[in-house]
Amino acid sequence: MWEKILAIFASLIGMWTKLPEETKDKIIDSIVDMFTDIFRQQYKSSKNDESKGGEKA
Predict the structure, then answer these.
(1) CA 54, CA 46: separation in Å to the nearest integer?
(2) How many CB atoms lie within 10 A of CB 16?
(3) Model confidence pLDDT, tens digit, residues 1-57
(4) Is pTM, for the whole model, over 0.85?
(5) How far, in Å, CA of 49 to CA of 31, rounded?
(6) What is the distance between the alpha carbons of residues 52 and 57, in angstroms, rounded to a whole number?
(7) What is the domain partition of the chain in residue ranges?
(8) Helix or strand run (H / E) with residue 23
(9) Are 13 and 23 in contact (CB under 8 A)?
(10) CB of 31 within 8 A of CB of 41?
(11) Contact assessment for residue 18 and residue 10, using Cβ atoms and an 8 Å cutoff
């Protein structure tokens, strides 16, 4: 089981090392943008809950 998981990660790392730097930068920027949007929505949601008298989890 672990061999299959390690093989998948090794394959992903192999593909990553073959990518041009420009492509890597675009992928990283896309991931950062995605998580920024998610965290922004979470923050706004938690602020709205607090203003309505909700308790923090």
Answers:
(1) 9
(2) 11
(3) 999 999 999 999 999 999 999 999 999 999 999 999 899 999 888 888 777 765 555
(4) no
(5) 27
(6) 14
(7) 20-57
(8) helix 21-51
(9) no
(10) no
(11) no
